[in-house]
Amino acid sequence: AIAKRCRWFDIMKKTGLIVGKFAPLHAGHEYLLKTVADAVDALVVLLYDASDITKVPLSVRADWIRALYSKAIVLEGHNSPLRDMWTPVRTREHEEFIRSLVEPYHVTHVFSCEDYGELLARALGAAHVRVEKVTNGEEHMSATMIRNNPHARKFVSEKVYADMQKYGDVV
């Protein structure tokens, strides 16, 4: 009976999912992570393998998040489907890939700042919560901009920037 109650509690708790490449982890990602961590009982973060856009290994990027949120469940999405085009078939491949990794965690909410979040939430049978991007008067930040602009260094931590330099991911 206790085991059944524990499983029931796991199903009833609010479990939030964030999906991303975190290439690199920047202030916008940190805002999203903090917002979600404060809103849920359990935080699941799935990082996509992204060797096509970053030289920083998946394990290093996952460790950035683990260092910030030691209680988060950080999943490394090795061998993820291609992100070359978004056809219905490719979208289903991504949904199945994500579902296969997060299914044990009973995700109840998908949090995102992007349009894909609503579709992913629907595919997982979860609610979608859109988190608005905050710029605090700064120019908009994106991981692509940070990788390609040495002046965007202010948007990443010392550790992240050091790893970007170590793996040759800065201009």
Can you describe this structure?
With 171 residues, the protein is an alpha/beta fold. Helix content is 43%, strand content 15%. It has 7 helices and 5 strands. α2 (27-39) links the parallel β1 (15-20) and β2.
What are the SSEs and their pairings?
Blueprint: H1 2-12, E1 15-20, H2 27-39, E2 42-48, H3 58-68, E3 73-77, H4 88-102, E4 109-112, H5 116-124, E5 127-130, H6 143-148, H7 158-166
Parallel strand pairs: 1-2, 1-4, 2-3, 4-5
TL;DR?
With 171 residues, the chain is α/β, with parallel strands linked by helices. It has helices spanning 2-12, 27-39, 58-68, 88-102, 116-124, 143-148, 158-166; strands spanning 15-20, 42-48, 73-77, 109-112, 127-130.
**Order of the strands making up the biggest sheet:** 3-2-1-4-5
Reported for the largest beta sheet, the result is: 5 strands, parallel
Overall geometry comes to: globular
Question: In percent, how much strand structure appears in the residues?
Answer: 15-25%
Roughly how many Å is the radius of gyration?
17 Å
Oligomer: single chain
Helical fraction: 40-55%
How many helices? Answer: 7
State the order of secondary-structure elements, H for helix, E for strand.
Answer: HEHEHEHEHEHH
Alpha-beta content class? alpha/beta
First-to-last CA distance? 58 Å
Count of DSSP E strands?
A: 5
Mean pLDDT metric: 87
Unreliably modeled segments: 1-6
